[in-house]
Design a protein that fits this description.
Elements: H1 3-16, H2 21-34, H3 40-50, H4 54-63, H5 73-81
């Protein structure tokens, strides 16, 4: 398994084990919809996004509230536009 596949597996795992079922569903669905379209640099940014606090991610999704210490506009826009 190459480095890119390992990173994708890490992202998939992290998206599905968040602590609340709602965030597991939201983030797993989002990751599945974008993971194969992103290059290695954007996958690293997606991985960083998944390190953010669930409450911050949820507030961004619902209200557009900025996420502290995360500023990748492409990932944020993909997430904001995502609908389950």
């Amino acid at each position: 398994m190459d480095k890119l596949e390992l990173l994708k597996n890490k992202i998939k795992y992290r998206s599905g084990y968040r602590g609340t079922k709602e965030m597991d569903i939201l983030l797993t669905s989002f990751v599945k919809s974008v993971i194969n379209e992103l290059d290695e640099n954007k996958l690293d940014k997606l991985n960083d996004f998944l390190k953010c606090n669930d409450e911050d991610i949820y507030n961004y999704y619902l209200n557009g509230t900025l996420i502290p210490n995360f500023d990748d506009d492409e990932i944020l826009n993909l997430f904001k536009e995502f609908k389950i």
